[in-house]
Automatic annotation (TrEMBL):
Compartments where located: Secreted
PANTHER family for the chain: PROPROTEIN CONVERTASE SUBTILISIN/KEXIN (PTHR10795)
Start and end residues of each Inhibitor I9 domain: 32-107
Species assigned in the record: Eucalyptus grandis (Flooded gum)
Protein name: Subtilisin-like protease SBT1.7
Length: 765
């Protein structure tokens, strides 16, 4: 979220004043809890659930404010309670869990970056059936006047739709149409925590005052808009992935975050409203399946046949940083497009460096003096160009070098401009390496990698009169290699269940052009008064709706496919290599990426239409998975809203969840009793379902990894009718390796026409 300084200040004040109030009245502070009720064990003395909820609540707290009741994704309610009341409530009969609400956040990199539109998308066949598919986007709302929400040529709203168009001061019933078929907003949790919404700052309605929700929803299912661009950059046709699918907007994110009770209410409603896909570029919760709001909501959405697609997070390149990892969620990482926005810096010594920028204004007419912000500041960390940190007399008329980090990139350009600088070179520090992100800067600017930054700083130190100039290079196409995994994209291994590979796949999430709000400029800065219909931003927030939209197209083409089947089709047809045979690269390392970075690979929309075979999974499979995790019945109930008893005589294996990829954690030499030389064997079982023509598939394993033997049995499978299922096992026999070692391979079933691929990621822990 773009938290301007003003908003942060407001938040701090609010927290302080609440504290003050608590001191003076001695009233214990309340916070929001999500109460999960054991619906099937309601005492018969109650006539209905609401009465029961009410009575449970009254027994611990008189006059507590119930925020929402939930009926679809879980049974229960959310309420403001003191810690003491929450503790008492948890001990009441029929209460499954009392979970403190978690605040989530958007998975954007927060400041606009550069763009791109996919080249192949125009080729994707879209039948009229696509207009029967409804994509729910849980985000910051929508800016309904945009052409991307135009409903020209769309038939009336599908009869399956049961939702509504909620109105507010800034959103009326004519804001919805046959494209934007519904819009709701969920603010009770937000307002209970932080006080009433200030309608001069944000809309108490589905209207998007931030831009993020408009961007994600138009990426998933925006209508075709010719001649879209940002200041002339990335000019072309803008379109969502599923241009005929319908959009249902659920605003759950506000200026200060996305609150768990609101998210749960939105998921609950989305299920009741009859959506087919839920797109959530939100994360930050706890990961246990019985405590994470998104995971709990997604389970029940999945049980209703709804595919839930989530962003993997922007915490890369650290390993084990991936979020939204429940196996019933489709988890999407981010990669680049083949489009770039070069900007060139030429130094007084003749050296030239290539960076990126989305600055489109008046350019510098020639070389000007160059200064390092760290040497032109009155503050100790002046190198990052904090607001007010530059000394005007030292930067006036000069190009200022600011280091990345600390504050938003676009804000640095405003700081330089306000101090009288005429240009900015944004240099990466070690933590950003060579990852380049361009923004709609407010003066001539270029973002450069760490290596260039070091060289330029050396030049300034060694030359008594350093100078430079900056020139824009417009929009460059067919940039290779592409895609490249974004440095910020969150990585595996899976922090909770190492046998399940996450993320599932990658999609465009760097430099994405899509619709934007009219409420703020492209940088999101308060003082940026520019208005744009399209903006170019980055994050796994942007890659997630690409997959959501593609899932909608697959749902239209194959209406009987389960969420797992759709995800399988997207994963088994994803690619991991460039045309020249090299593996997709990683910006973070400059070398090949691995399945821990890209999952099954980069999404290939055309191939996903006809995958041949799929790895299907249903509610029962996931329940068995939870049994394999040794979850208690109560934990399973909290996670899934279902009664399920694991059979004590059955051996459940996490390895047997019918997942389209293989993650194989093995014990390292030191942790195996018996020491070096010991080997271990693990067996994974999978079942394939035929969704194509009858035929015989044979298996191949990409490369035998030294020290791991991979055995697939049987080696060929013959499928007759559509829907026929066949199982196989993969046995991994591995020697011991030092902790931290990883090895990768892939497995492929092929009938000569279809190629059903799965990544294999082995790690010694
Ligand atoms: C709804 O809003 C639109 C645009 O903001 C406006 O033109 C229209 O008059 C409004 N309609 C009603 C019924 O208020
Ligand atoms: C900053 O100032 C110090 C002290 O004058 C100098 O040694 C250093 O080279 C300067 N660094 C840059 C990048 O200008
Ligand atoms: C579950 O419990 C069994 C038996 O105690 C144990 O072997 C297994 O490792 C446990 N599984 C997990 C995922 O903790």
């Amino acid at each position: 979220m773009k938290l301007g300084l003003l908003h942060i200040a407001a938040l701090v004040l609010l927290v302080l004043s609440q504290y003050g109030a608590a001191e003076s009245t001695k009233k214990p502070a309340k916070s929001t809890y999500i109460i999960h009720m054991d619906k099937s064990n309601m005492p018969t003395t109650f006539a209905g659930h609401l009465e029961w909820y009410d009575s449970s609540l009254k027994s611990v707290s008189d006059g507590a404010d119930m925020l929402y009741t939930y009926n679809s994704v879980l049974h229960g309610f959310s309420v403001r309670l003191t810690a003491k009341e929450a503790e008492l409530l948890e001990k009441q009969p029929g209460i499954l869990s009392v979970l403190p609400e978690v605040r989530y956040e958007l998975h954007t990199t927060r400041t606009p970056e550069f763009l791109g539109l996919e080249k192949n998308e125009a080729l994707y066949p879209e039948s009229n059936l696509a207009s029967e598919v409804i994509v729910a986007v849980l985000d910051t709302g929508a800016w309904p006047e945009l052409k991307s929400y135009d409903d020209a040529g769309l038939s009336p709203v599908p009869s399956t739709w049961k939702g509504t168009c909620e109105v507010g001061k800034t959103f009326n019933s004519s804001s919805c149409n046959n494209k934007l078929i519904g819009a709701r907003f969920f603010s009770r949790g937000y307002e209970a925590a932080l006080g009433p919404i200030d309608e001069s700052k944000e809309s108490r309605s589905p209207r998007d005052d931030d831009g993020h929700g408009t961007h994600t929803s138009t990426t998933a299912a925006g209508s075709v808009v010719p001649e879209a661009n940002l200041f002339g950059f990335a000019s072309g046709i803008a379109r969502g992935m599923a241009t005929k699918a319908r959009l249902a907007i659920y605003k759950v994110c506000w200026l200060s975050g996305c609150f768990g009770s609101d998210i749960m209410a939105a998921m609950d409603k989305a299920v009741e409203d009859g959506v087919n896909v839920i797109s959530m570029s939100i994360g930050g919760g706890i990961t246990d399946y019985y405590r994470d709001t998104i995971s709990m909501g997604a389970f029940n959405a999945m049980a209703h046949g709804i595919l839930v697609s989530c962003s993997a997070g922007n915490s890369g390149p650290s390993s084990m940083s991936v979020a939204n990892i429940a196996p019933w969620i489709t988890t999407v990482g981010a990669s680049t497009l083949d489009r770039d926005f070069p900007a060139y810096v030429t130094l007084g010594n003749g050296k030239k460096y290539r960076g990126v920028s989305l600055y489109n204004g008046k350019s510098l007419s020639g070389p000007v003096p160059l200064v390092f912000a760290g040497n032109a500041s009155s503050s100790s960390s002046g190198e990052v160009c904090f607001t007010g940190s530059l000394v005007a007399s030292k930067v006036a008329g000069k190009i200022v070098i600011c280091d990345r980090g600390g504050n938003s990139r676009a804000q640095k350009s405003m700081v330089v401009k306000n101090a009288g600088g005429v240009g900015m070179i944004l240099t990466n520090t070690e933590s950003y390496g060579e990852e380049l992100v361009a923004d709609a800067y407010l003066l001539p600017s270029a973002a450069l990698g760490q290596k260039a930054g070091i060289e330029i700083k050396k030049y300034i130190s060694s030359d008594p009169t350093p100078t430079a100039t900056i020139a824009s290079g417009g929009t460059e196409l067919d940039v290779q290699p592409s895609p490249v995994v974004a440095s910020f994209s969150s990585r595996g291994p899976n922090p909770l269940n190492q046998q399940i590979l996450k993320p599932d796949l990658i999609a465009p999430g760097v430099n994405v052009l899509a619709g934007w709000t009219g409420a703020v400029g492209p940088t999101g800065l308060d003082k940026d008064k520019r208005q744009v219909n399209f903006n170019i931003i980055s994050g796994t927030s942007m890659s997630c709706p690409h997959v959501s939209g593609l899932a909608a197209l697959l749902k239209a083409a194959h209406q009987d496919w389960s969420p797992a089947a759709i995800r399988s089709a997207l994963m088994t047809t994803a690619y991991t290599k460039y045309k020249n045979g090299e593996t997709i690269k990683d910006v973070a390392t400059g070398s090949s990426s691995t399945p821990f970075d890209y999952g099954a690979g980069h999404v290939d929309p055309m191939a996903a239409l006809d995958p041949g075979l799929v790895y299907d999974a249903a509610v029962e499979d996931y329940l068995r998975f939870l049994c394999a995790l040794n979850y208690t019945s109560a934990q399973i109930k909290s996670s899934t809203n279902r009664d399920y008893s694991c059979d004590s005589s059955t051996k459940y294996n996490v390895e047997d969840l019918n997942y389209p990829s293989f993650a194989v954690p093995l014990e390292s030499a030191s942790s195996i009793s018996g020491g070096a030389g010991a080997s271990s064997t693990v067996k994974y079982t999978r079942t394939l379902t035929n969704v194509g023509s009858p035929g015989t598939y044979t298996v191949s394993v990409s490369s035998q990894i030294p020290s791991v033997k991979i055995l697939v049995e049987p080696e060929s499978l013959t499928f007759g009718n559509m829907g026929e299922k066949k199982s196989y096992t993969v046995t991994f026999t591995a020697g011991s390796m030092p902790s931290g070692t990883t090895s990768f391979a892939s497995l492929k079933w092929s009938d000569g026409k279809h190629s059903v691929g799965s990544p294999i990621a082995i790690s010694w822990t």
